[in-house]
Amino acid sequence: MPTLALEETGFRGLAVVRPTIHTDERGQFFRVFCVDDFARSEHAFALNQASISTSHRRHTLRGMHYQGAPHGEWKLVRCVAGAVFDVAVDLRAGEPTLGRWFAIELSAENALALLVPPGCAHGFCTLTDDTSVLYMMDYAFTPSAARGVRWNDPAFGIRWPCDNPVVNARDATWPDWTH
Fold first, then answer.
1. pLDDT tens sequence across 116-134
2. Is residue 66 among the annotated active site residues?
3. What is the domain range of residue 69?
């Protein structure tokens, strides 16, 4: 019996991952990853590396990041403390969703995750102070392949939940998207 349900989003490969949550008088238990569940799905995700980012302030924005070919990576993103407005933008040539974005609130409370395929840029804005996000990737981080697009590029028109986010210099200066 699957412990993780992968719900399609209308973007090829991009899926919301909903765990089966077991609750009792002690609290909750759920799986964050299951090889068998992904093997039964149509998504080619195999865990290779995991990282956690922490953000101390609400409205901290990280993104929009991806790795260039041939180092493209699947990312399984889950908020483990606090909440984020999580965004993926499709940058894959030939896709009907090229240049479109998908957003979902991920939180420690709702336990959802977002599976982001290679060729999609990813980023998030924290909705609470003291937020932590777990990234699980199928390909190791390759600094020379690190790419990004500007978080507020008008070509995408992402409706972020804040006007003046805390953004580091690198994320503030990614170029606008050209396709």
1. 999 999 999 999 999 999 9
2. no
3. 45-172
